[in-house]
């Protein structure tokens, strides 16, 4: 299996490391042609506006949208979740826009710019995952086809729509591989 990791900006190196630990091939994706031969793609955390502006200049956002709508599994973390969202409150920044979610950037506010919390994910067993939230967006609403896999304070923090999953936190910054393995199972089935 070969997983593409969008390597324009942000913490793509941590995702690649995670995939290597799991014995899975990782390929850096910057241009549309880099999408060839991959079984799934990860969009890392970082800065969603930079990701969007550079990604649209490279033609990568359009190419990704096309492949994702065609069934390519995708996993977005934090900024990656933002660029996957159809609706970003008070922003017209470039995006892929394939997920029926409404996100509010930096909505946890300055005080709590960064924090950690235990996140219970029923699908992944009884032991919670440690959620690392860094200037994280809040998912304010989800559409009908979106499954909420985990919540924090009543707001979704891990969602799935078909072969697309997104977390507002950063599992790649922990040693817990369960969410990446969950994504790899989606890729295997696709
Ligand atoms: N707040 C950032 C954004 O809007 C996301 C932060 C992150 O990915 N850790 O893009």
Strand order of the largest sheet: 2-1-3-4-12-11-10
In percent terms, what proportion of residues is strand? 25-35%
Q: Please report the total strand number as a whole number.
A: 12
How many independent structural domains? 1
Query: Level of helix content?
Result: 25-40%
Q: Which ranges are low-confidence, i.e. pLDDT below 50, for 5 or more consecutive residues? A: none
How would you characterize this protein structure?
The structure is a single chain. Helix content is 25%, strand content 33%. The chain has a seven-stranded mixed β-sheet. With 190 residues, the protein is of the alpha/beta class. A hairpin with a 2-residue loop joins strand 10 and strand 11. The chain has a single domain (2-189), classed as Rossmann fold. The mean pLDDT is 97. Bound molecules: glutamine (GLN). Glutamine (GLN) binds at residues 45-48, 78-79, 82, 105-106, 134-135.
In short:
The protein has 190 residues and is of the alpha/beta class. It has helices at 12-21, 48-57, 60-69, 79-84, 178-189, and strands spanning 2-6, 25-29, 40-43, 74-77, 85-88, 99-104, 114-119, 129-134, 138-142, 147-152, 155-161, 164-167. The protein has a single domain (2-189), classed as Class I glutamine amidotransferase (GATase) domain (Rossmann fold).
Draw up the topology in text.
Blueprint: E1 2-6, H1 12-21, E2 25-29, E3 40-43, H2 48-57, H3 60-69, E4 74-77, H4 79-84, E5 85-88, E6 99-104, E7 114-119, E8 129-134, E9 138-142, E10 147-152, E11 155-161, E12 164-167, H5 178-189
């Amino acid at each position: 299996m070969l997983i593409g990791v969008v390597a324009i900006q942000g913490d793509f190196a941590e995702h690649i490391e995670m995939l290597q630990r799991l014995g899975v091939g990782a390929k850096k994706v910057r241009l549309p042609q880099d999408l060839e031969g991959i079984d799934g793609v990860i969009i890392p955390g970082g800065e969603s506006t930079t990701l969007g502006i550079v990604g649209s200049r490279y033609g990568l956002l359009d190419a990704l949208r096309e492949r994702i709508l065609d069934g390519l599994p995708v996993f977005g973390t934090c900024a990656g979740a933002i660029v996957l969202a159809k609706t970003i409150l008070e922003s017209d920044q470039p995006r892929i826009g394939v997920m029926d979610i409404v996100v509010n950037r930096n909505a946890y506010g300055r005080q709590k710019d960064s924090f950690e919390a235990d996140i219970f994910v029923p699908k992944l067993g009884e032991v919670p995952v440690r959620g690392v939230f860094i200037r994280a967006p809040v998912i304010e609403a989800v559409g009908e086809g979106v499954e909420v896999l985990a919540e924090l304070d009543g707001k979704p923090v891990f969602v799935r729509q078909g072969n697309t999953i997104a977390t507002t936190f950063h599992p790649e910054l922990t040693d817990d591989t369960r969410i990446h393995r969950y994504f790899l199972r989606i890729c295997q089935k696709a």
